[in-house]
Amino acid sequence: MSIPGNAVASRSFDDARELLHGLEVPAPAAPPPLSLTGSHLGPYPAMMPPPPLPAYVGRGGGSRLPPPNGGAAITEVAAAVARGSISARQLLEQSLDALAGTGHLGAMVHLDAASLRREADVLDTEAAAGQVRGPLHGVPVTVKDVIHVTGMPTRAGSAAYESLSPAEGTGVARLRAAGALIMGKVATHEFALGVTTPQCRNPHDPEAISGGSSGGSAIAVATGVGLASLGTDTRASLRVPAALCGVVGFKPTLGRVPIDGIVPLSWTMDHLGPIARTVADASAVLEVLAGPGGLGSGPGRTRSRPVVGVVPAILEEADGAVADAVDGALGVLSGLGCPVSVVPGPGSEDLDVANALGLLISRSEAAAFHRSQGTDLDRCIPEVRDQLRAAQEITAVDYLEAQRQRSALADRTLAALAGVDVLVTPTTPVPAPSRDDYEDYLLVLSRNAIIWSLVGSPALSLPCGAAGRLPIGVQLTAAPGAERLLARIGTMLEQALAAR
Predict the structure, then answer these.
(1) 392 lies in the same domain as 244
(2) 237 noted as active-site residue
(3) Which of the ends of the chain has fewer CB neighbours closer than 10 A, N or C?
(4) Residues 313 and 410 in one domain
């Protein structure tokens, strides 16, 4: 059934259904969709050894990367608070000063300075008494406004939703128990149903978008309003804004971090994870979010020189400046001793399928949630209203078929990774677009990212160059459970790019 109107969302749903109906039907014995239980946190899938992969020959060059945002690592900051060489109150005041100069970017949506000063003083008193809560003691952290925090309202970026006394979930509770100072709420694309956060401005160019849906999180970190931010990622919502704002976004393995205490977008695809200044900072926060035992040891396969995979077609489809920057990053990894090889996929067709499946699955689940809440769609921004109304027309058959195709896509994608440790792609195919055109980028910005949310693999975006003033991000992905491997390779690349 075609949805009336000319909205990008409506046309996208029609295209997604048409693509779904043209796919070969998987065998009935195909496994069910990936669960949220964390059951895939283990070794790589058993499969035949892959054939040798051809070496990658890049185009050379690549744009230069400005040094990462300066300052001590989060773990060093927390240690300094513990020994009294800096105070949580001083860190808070630095964050408030940064906010005062960047309010026009629209990142912060709730902050109570008086309450924060009292909490910072409590943290300093505890540190002076030798009572350090954990590895984030005194570190200021912001939280995306679809995640509940006790004592703070949750509005999810919408005039149609408000929860004034929400119960915070496991993720926020773990940050608090580790000593983090929860600064306040930062902006989100309404209900996290987009990748642009149109009410915000990019800190590198105010006429460009910040990306989304965790746009406020990326802006806050990029401008020093907190050293990290807790966001969500369903299709691409940590990685896209991190790439467009020049910071690091780390989506964990599906099920790694509990997703209770949020306004859900898609209960079978939602992830909780950090945005931070560096890979090391993001990894430190993710270790806390993962809970007892942290990230564990990861998959059993290890190599002294990780093998890096690349799909040339994905680079060829990217904007020229983006392709050059990511090609330069591949050259740096090769120079560090990591063999770079061409892998057969996921290719363009898989990315198209992933975008279609992700749209149908996530928006069906979002529409079901908002119907149960009685959300007044007329109070939503046009893009979100159109998505939710279009999603109400998706049939149960199409939804279930999309989930079955998701399993088949996961099988193909993980098989393609069998011969490599990490796959490198552009995070987004283009740099940050103009704010005037944001509605045209519902599927464009998420194109290279959504497949990893569907498959459940961890994915890391870090800066690798710039197109003029606008940052460019490179995405590293690996098999489920391999967050520590991604962090190791990402840190190597980050440091080498900065040194270059």
Answers:
(1) no
(2) yes
(3) N
(4) yes
pTM for the model? 0.93
Cα→Cα distances 157→142, 154, 371, 400, Å: 15, 8, 18, 30
Tell me the backbone φ, ψ of residue 20, rounded to 5 degrees: -60, -45
Residues 284 and 313 in one domain: no
- Cβ atoms of 55 and 339 closer than 8 Å: yes
If asked whether residues 356 and 446 sit together in one domain, one would say yes
Active site residue 446: no
The residue range of the domain holding 251 is: 74-289
Query: Taking a C-beta distance cutoff of 8 angstroms, is the pair 337, 379 a contact?
Result: no
Instruction: Return the ∠ at Cα 154 (arms to 112 and 362), rounded to 5°.
Output: 145
User: What letter represents residue 89's amino acid?
Assistant: R
Cis peptide before 49 (omega within 30 of 0): no
Q: Which amino acid is at 131?
A: Q
Q: Which of 256, 289, 322 is the last residue of a domain?
A: 289
Q: What is the DSSP string of 5-16?
A: S--HHHHHHHHH
- Token couple for 257: 């971090």
388 contacts: CB under 8 Å, gap ≥ 6: 193, 363, 366, 367, 370, 375, 377, 380
Asked if the structure places residue 1 within a domain, the reply is no
> CATH no. for residue 26?
3.90.1300.10
63 given a catalytic annotation: no
Instruction: Read off the tokens for 46.
Output: 């058993």
Which run of H or of E encompasses 142?
strand 140-144
Catalytic residue among 213, 217, 283, 446: 213
Query: Residue 33 pLDDT more than 90?
Result: no
2 located within any domain: no
pLDDT tens digits, 214-268: 999 999 999 999 999 999 999 999 999 999 999 999 999 999 999 999 999 999 9
CA 103 from chain center: how many Å?
23
In DSSP notation, 459-475 reads EEEEEEEEETTEEEEEE
Handedness of CA 322, 237, 382, 402 (dihedral sign): positive
| Helix (H), strand (E) at residue 118 | helix 113-128
Q: Is residue 294 part of a domain?
A: no
Query: Could you say which of 237, 283, 362, 364 is catalytic?
Result: 237
**How large is the average pLDDT for residues 191-201?**
96
CA proximity to 158, closest of 434, 458, 388, 487: 388
Distance CA 413, CA 457 (A): 10
| pLDDT surpasses 90 at 45 | no
Please give the tally of structural domains in the chain. 2
Query: Where does residue 491 rank: exposed (0-12), middle (13-18), buried (19+ CB within 10 A)?
Result: middle
And the tokens for 35? 């669960």
Catalytic residue among 10, 12, 87, 144: 144
How does pLDDT run across 123-142, given as a tens digit for each residue?
999 999 999 999 999 999 99
Six token digits for residue 130: 């030798």
Whole-angstrom distance between the N-terminal and C-terminal Cα of the chain? 54
Q: Which residues contact 122 (CB under 8 A, 6 or more apart)?
A: none
